[in-house]
Design a protein that fits this description.
Blueprint lengths: L1 H38 L15 H11 L9 H11 L14 H14 L6 H13 L36 H13 L7 H13 L31 E3 L5 E3 L3 H13 L7 H12 L21 H15 L3 E3 L5 E3 H12 L17 H16 L1
Antiparallel strand pairs: 1-2, 3-4
């Protein structure tokens, strides 16, 4: 009994020591990254290149204002927010030319993080625009001969890249972040509609009515158009087409369920967290390499960003892997990102999904550490 108590205390002390060491790494890593981002601001106040979307600027702004020593009134950030808001359309969207949901959602999160009452009317207008593009019986811009058949429609509750765009888990991920960051309650109709779409993203045949649904509890990219997963597909023993789950979409779906008010006892949430526990890793986007080994590093910084927001929302400090090992996800994530930082303070990833842009990857990395540091 005494021996067991000593071991328990020793393990606890080691865990606390590891957490303290990670916390010590967090701030210097963030500070170095933000100093790099300061050097990348353009003369017009933005952080995006000529062919980049305004969302790049929004991600950088959010990274800065979430640090206590910066505010939206700092001159360089004030210029950045002015540039971002210059993209707001009369209808409320904040984007340039394309990807209206993606850009507007990230902009809403950046504006909300500033905690500036002057931004509230702009936020509300953008939120109303996002709601108008959610696939439901009131979606804007559908042709006259096309309708959404309520909750039985596989597209119901999702968001795509713009008007009439096929809904997917990535746009849903960012739209749900935006609604949450803007302060909408889980009972809001947009959140509740989203549950139908998220449920159909999950490999859980007990709750998902799609024919490809398996039972591992993870999530795919979209259930629309017959279903699609960037992790690929396979044939079940009976010849049935099945879709593979993968990391970034599993954390997207998991987080969206939490934002919509589903509890830890909900079977869908349980199944998702079980997938996360079985596939815990920070070395790749899990599930992706089953399709093609080179794809395992696709979207890693988006993966870290989504993972950190999801686990922070869930509120579980540790993850137990299949070998029974306990992982302090906050400590491990901070350590991982600190190890990936380049000498100039930046981060860079694979060219897929723009993560070879160090401004984008660095903004994702900073916010991931901020979530882990809480």
């Amino acid at each position: 009994m005494i021996y067991r108590t000593i071991v328990t205390i020793t393990l606890l002390m080691l865990s606390m020591s590891s957490s303290a060491q990670a916390a010590d790494k967090a701030q210097p890593t963030i500070d170095k990254a933000l100093n790099y981002l300061k050097t990348q601001q353009k003369s017009d106040g933005s952080w995006q290149g000529p062919n980049d979307p305004p969302a790049v600027t929004a991600l950088v702004l959010r990274a800065f204002v979430r640090e206590g020593n910066y505010s939206a009134n700092d001159p360089f950030l004030k210029n950045g927010y002015a540039k971002l808001l210059s993209y707001q359309m009369e209808e409320g969207g904040i984007y340039k030319d394309m990807l209206s949901v993606y850009n507007t959602a990230i902009a809403v999160s950046a504006l909300s993080a500033a905690n500036d009452p002057a931004f509230r009317p702009r936020i509300d207008k953008a939120v109303d625009y996002l709601k108008s593009l959610q696939w439901s019986d009131t979606i804007a811009g559908l042709p006259k001969n096309e309708t959404v058949a309520g909750p039985t429609d596989v597209r119901f509750g999702g968001w795509g890249y713009g008007k009439k765009g096929r809904p997917d888990g990535s746009n849903l991920n960012l739209a749900m972040d935006a609604l949450h960051d803007a302060g909408l309650k889980p009972t809001d109709k947009a959140f509740q509609n989203a549950v139908a779409f998220v449920t159909r993203m999950q490999n859980s045949s007990e709750t998902n009515d799609q024919p490809w649904a398996g039972n591992d509890g993870g999530f795919v990219y979209t259930p629309a158009s017959g279903g699609e997963s960037f992790a690929g597909e396979y044939q079940a023993p009976g010849g049935q087409r099945m879709l593979r789950s993968y990391g970034s979409m599993t954390y997207s779906g998991f987080k969206s369920m939490i934002y919509a008010g589903l509890t830890k006892d909900d079977p869908r949430v349980k199944a998702a967290f079980n997938w996360i526990s079985r596939n815990w890793t920070l070395d790749e986007n899990p599930g992706m390499k089953l399709n093609d080994p080179k794809t395992a590093q696709y979207g890693m910084y988006y993966y870290y960003y989504t993972l950190s927001r999801a686990l922070n929302a869930y509120g579980q400090p540790t993850i137990i892997d299949p070998q029974g090992k306990s992982h302090d996800w906050r400590t491990e994530l901070i350590d991982k990102l600190a190890s990936l930082q380049r000498p100039d303070g930046s981060f860079i990833g694979d060219k897929r999904w723009m993560e070879d842009n160090p401004v984008l990857a660095t903004a994702y990395a900073v916010q991931s550490i901020q979530e882990a540091r809480k």
